[in-house]
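User: I'll paste a sequence; please echo it back and then give the predicted structure.

Assistant: Echoing your sequence first, then the prediction.
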Amino acid sequence: MRTIDWKQIISLLVIATFALGQQQLKCTKYICKAFISEKHEFCYQQKDSDVTLVRKCDGSDSYCTLPLRQLFVQKPEELGKEYTCQATLKRESFASSYPGDVCTQDKDCRSEGCDSNLGICIGLKEGGACDETKNIFCQQGLVCSATKLCAKPAAVGSQCAQTSDCSNDAFCNAQKVCQMYMTVAKGGKITDKVAENGFNLECETLYADKNSVCQDAPASKRANMTAPCKSDQECALSDGTFGSCRCGFNDKGDAYCQPSVGDPVYQKIKEVATTLISTNKDCHTYSRFSQLCPSIKSKASLLDNLITYGSNYPFFQNVPSCLADYVWSLVPNRLVIEAMLENKSNEQPKETPKTPGTPEPAKQEPPKQEPAKQEPAKPEPPKQEPAKQEPPKQEPPKQEPPKQEPPKQEPPKQEPSKQAVSYTHLTLPTIYSV
């Protein structure tokens, strides 16, 4: 009787598994067509398993009913074979705003009360009897306590039952204590759900494993993330594992490596989230990362866009021209984000002076001034001497600006909102797991 060679069987299984992992993705090609069929209302039509025709809807008051979010999660089987253009409908107002959020009428507010003068929803003051199950909410800056009375939120280090009990810069950890966001060290346990790629805002590294334990965030080893990939094996990560090669939404059927939490886009998310968390004190506890809160609207928008872009990177590469506006409507801050990521990659080269608003160019300016001082010093010392004597005459006016600086420093205290808006163009987003 022939004996079974288990070693050989195991080796064959390993080879088979590796071969399966090396299988190349077959992605759909999305081809732009002026006319998809006799029925001109179609904006999306699947011709076969390889090709889908798409077109831009006519007029500014028409939109394509294609659900882009389903393309995000890569579930083509949930998509229909045809989608049409429809007239843009006026959305009915529904209660979505918490106290402190923007509103135009009472129906916009969960509390059913809108201050028309301030343009924000109103809530109960401290000590008021609240019941969130009946849409009786406390005003921004207060929370509905266990005794159903409006009270100040629990500070960092205080006991809590849930995150909404804590101040807006903290969450309720596993020990039921309010803890600052992004402060759980490596090896620490988190309470919030972990995204498929490990992204989480409780961890200091923004990354947690499948066991909800914070770990160092792996980074992509791929040199050119804009180059198409064929399989996960082309998306190697710094921790020895492989990332995900995902189909995109383009006319060539290309796939791209999904960025990892250790990549630049997620580092930008951390920077923006840090800024937002330090400025959301005036928001309702449920709107701590919401674009409906006026004081963080632009920051929350940028953060949301960064997370959407980073979590669905392949989808935004080489989008068909006819649907570019439709697709990029999901990321209104596209140009800001691309500029942020470009600046991140250009930190080491000499191109940094292109962004004079950042502190980095200032550090590079001194070296440029030093050679200029050395060149004239040797050939024409006498000519430089008068030049050095002239500046003294200009020095007095240089001393006068300091007198004007104090008034410039006072406005910032009076106009914090303007600073928030300008900073929005540098870094901004929303906090929730993706």
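Confidence is low (pLDDT under 50) at residues 11-21, 347-434. The first helix runs from residue 6 to 21.
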